[in-house]
Amino acid sequence: MPADRILFSTRKGLIVFERGATGWRLTSEHFSAARVSYAFVDPRDETLWACLDHGHWGVKLHRSQDGGRSFDEVDTPAYPEGETMTSHTGAQFPARLHRIWTLVPGGDDQPGRLYMGTEPGGLFASEDGGRSWALNHGLWDHPSRTKEWGGAGTEYAALHSICVDPRDSAHVYVAVSCAGVFETTDGGISWQPRNKGISSNFLPNPTADVGHDPHCIVLCATRPEIIWQQNHCGIYHSDDAGASWREISDAGPSFGWGFPIAVDPLRPECAWVVPMDPSRTSPDRALAVHRTEDGGKTWQAMRQGLPQEQSYDLVLRQGMDLAGDALAIGSTTGNAWVSEDRGETWHCLGTHLPPIAAARFA
Q1: Burial group, residue 89, by CB count within 10 angstroms (0-12, 13-18, 19+)
Q2: The sheet that has 192-193: what strands, in order across it?
Q3: pTM above the 0.85 mark?
Q4: Mean pLDDT of the chain
């Protein structure tokens, strides 16, 4: 069954919609006027987490253990003294937390484990439900980081996607912009780049091991060796646990690129994307969600209920989510929609919301 709440992380707070007898409606707002970069509910204990960027006051982390009725501030992680970060110009600065991009629970056998993806590219882990955090040095000390990682629309590298193998909690993938996909099979002690088959035309060597810009990666919950990637240079699919990637852009939507991608947990060959054009708006100014049910061989554009003229909507990497047959999307122009039939038709939730960074069912 699909979840009955949608959390929209926006430029002006966390906005919550809930499904009732008469449909979806806005039921609560939190952290008014603060930028919320990401919010989600941990399915293991129903804790609602909210990651904030106050600008002047910096990065903050809050959690609610009563369904959002109240929030407690939690200490954010700190980069150890002496660590440095590399800007897009190659300059070195003392490492500090610029943004929390994502929070992901550990495996079922790790009840206190949380992972946090940050800018400038560090992966943090907590073993006590978020009360304390430790930098993963296995990834941070990877020899490629100081020379081959860089920002993509940000000053510093951003670790935005974390995928934990449901069969093996020590097996984790992360995606960094710009660096690429990395994999650990030993719980984060060591990491290897997994970018074979990716071609990035902005690199001196388009097929280099490191330096790529994965916009989002997701794996299939029941077939985790099947991984999907929405990349700056195309849409990619892996059926060998990331050992190699196959580009599927040619058969795909207009322009073959975008930010978000969602995969059906029960049908590994079924996925959804929201394409964009080079100006980072809807192709032909018409918004569509595209679905494939055959691993990217063919795609269907689904438009019913979405604006088909004068649409400047851009859906970011975390701006789409899937729960059962329901999909939710939110755009940087403050528009939000929900579909309850796998994307066939869409219902508008709001057209004057703040710019939306992330949408998550809860």
Answers
A1: exposed
A2: 158-164, 172-177, 180-184, 192-193
A3: yes
A4: 95
Residue type, 225: E
Q: Could you tell me if 40 and 7 are in contact, meaning their C-beta atoms sit under 8 angstroms apart?
A: yes
- Closest of 289, 180, 149 to residue 245, by C-alpha: 180
- Tell me the two tokens of residue 33: 């006027």
Helices (H), the chain: 137-140, 145-148
Residue 304 DSSP class:
B
Distance in angstroms (rounded) separating the CA atoms of residues 99 and 79: 12
* Distance in angstroms (rounded) separating the CA atoms of residues 162 and 282: 27
For 144, phi and psi rounded to 5 degrees? -80, -15
For 3: left if phi > 0, alpha if psi spans -120 to 50, otherwise beta; the answer is beta
| pLDDT tens-digit series, residues 186-211 | 999 999 999 999 999 999 999 999 99
Q: What percent of the chain has pLDDT over 70?
A: 98
| Alpha-carbon gap, residue 208 to 198, rounded angstroms | 8
Tokens of 260: 């978000």
Residues 6+ apart with CB under 8 A from 167: 224
Residues 6 or more apart in contact with residue 176 via CB below 8 angstroms: 121, 149, 157, 158, 159, 160, 182, 214
Phi and psi, residue 256, nearest 5°: 65, 25
Task: Give bridge partners of residue 73 from the DSSP assignment.
Answer: 62
pLDDT per residue as tens digits for the range 246-279? 999 865 566 678 999 999 999 999 999 999 988 8
| pLDDT, tens digit, 9 for 90 and up, residues 3-38 | 899 999 999 999 999 999 999 999 999 999 999 999
Give the integer Cα–Cα distance in Å for 57 and 76. 13
Residue 88 has pLDDT above 80, yes or no: no
Tokens of 18: 């809930």
3 state DSSP class of 50:
strand
Q: Are 105 and 113 contacting, i.e. CB atoms less than 8 angstroms apart? A: yes
